[in-house]
Design goal:
Elements (H helix, E strand, L loop, with lengths): L2 H28 L3 H8 L3 H28 L7 H7 L2 H13 L3 H10 L1
Helix pairs in contact: 1-5, 3-4, 3-5, 4-5
InterPro entries: DUF2834
Organism: Albimonas pacifica
Protein name: K+-transporting ATPase, A chain
């Protein structure tokens, strides 16, 4: 794995850890409530704008992931879907970019058979 691949994985980990730290702090203060969370997402126009922004980005990452899966038959990259929707775009997008930049198993196998 090259430097870029390591960078994508580090960003995926950071994108999972740092937002969850803030979510946990909010949940500890306000309780673990879906209605409270949705209320916080729509408390004002700025928060609602971010909700729409991240929602559209999540749909975009999901469609790109599905296109990648069906074009390359890279079934392992389907893991980006639950990561994007369960953790967030900040983890799902770098993970998807890691899948894009890694060598597919077929290319590695063909290279090894050649030798």
């Amino acid at each position: 794995m090259g430097r870029l691949g390591i960078l994508w994985l580090l960003l995926a980990v950071a994108g999972a850890v740092f937002p969850m730290l803030h979510f946990k702090a909010w949940a500890d203060a306000n309780g673990y409530s879906w209605s409270g969370l949705v209320g916080a997402w729509t408390v004002n126009d700025a928060a609602t704008g971010m909700l729409w922004d991240l929602g559209i980005a999540a749909v975009t990452v999901s469609l790109a992931t599905l296109a990648h899966v069906f074009a390359r038959r890279d079934w392992a990259s389907l893991v980006c879907l639950p990561v994007t929707w369960g953790i967030g775009v900040s983890a799902g997008l770098p993970l998807f970019l890691w899948f894009l930049t890694r060598k597919p198993r077929q290319a590695i196998k063909a290279r090894d058979e050649k030798w």
